[in-house]
Amino acid sequence: AMLRLRLLTWDVKDTLLRLRQPVGHSYAAAARARGLRAQPEALDRAFREAYGAQSRRLPNYGRGQGVSSRQWWLDVVRQTFVLAGVPDGAALAEQLYRDYCGPHTWEQLPGAADTLSRCRQRGFRMGVVSNFDNRLESILSGCDLRHHFDFVLTSETAGAAKPDGRIFEEALRLGGVPPAQAAHVGDDYTRDYRAARAVGMHSFLLRTAGQCPEPEVPPKHVLPSLSHLLTLIEK
């Protein structure tokens, strides 16, 4: 039977937008432009370490712990250069924080704009549910996707990060629909697929090539690409 959906919510990173190049490459390029010697691979490893440590110490960008998300990120960037042994790299933190706001850092996944347009044309309410800081509005605008959405809900704004059900409940409140009339689209089994289903929403898992399949996901909930979504919804 056709799903009686009225609201679609969307993850952003690696669902609608992805980084044009790995973090280590961007950081290394910025460093080299300042005449600093930097290895992309070392910076990649250092970033994962710094980001992981900061996330454990101050979850959800320090929300509720008196730290701004801007400060949270500046610390991560500085610590990345320290761990990678790039002296004076910390001076690049402000620039890199701004760079990650811009469309030259991000690109749309195949089918993103087209799928969003077609969903809008069919009259769905549309929202973003993303573990992201408050730069997401300007990133979506810069990448020409913001106009597809009725609301953009970040974990920073919501004060809860996926898989916490509260961020989905807030999205349902903003969308004005009960969970059974909403579906979430994302690429992460735990944070997107399972978390949305836990609050009673429908959910679709975008599975790009090379990901290992999670056994619990019925094939009719799996999207090999974004363009498959409308076919599944309209069955």
UniProtKB/TrEMBL annotation:
InterPro entries: HAD-like_hydrolase_domain, HAD-like_sf, HAD-SF_hydro_IA, HAD-SF_hydro_IA_REG-2-like, HAD-SF_hydro_IA_REG-2-like_cap, HAD_sf
GO CC aspect terms: nucleus
SUPFAM superfamilies (UniProt xref): HAD-like (SSF56784)
Coiled-coil residue spans: none
NCBIfam families recorded: DREG-2, HAD-SF-IA-v1, HAD-SF-IA-v3
Family: Belongs to the HAD-like hydrolase superfamily.
Protein name stated in the entry: Haloacid dehalogenase-like hydrolase domain-containing protein 3
This protein's encoding gene: Hdhd3
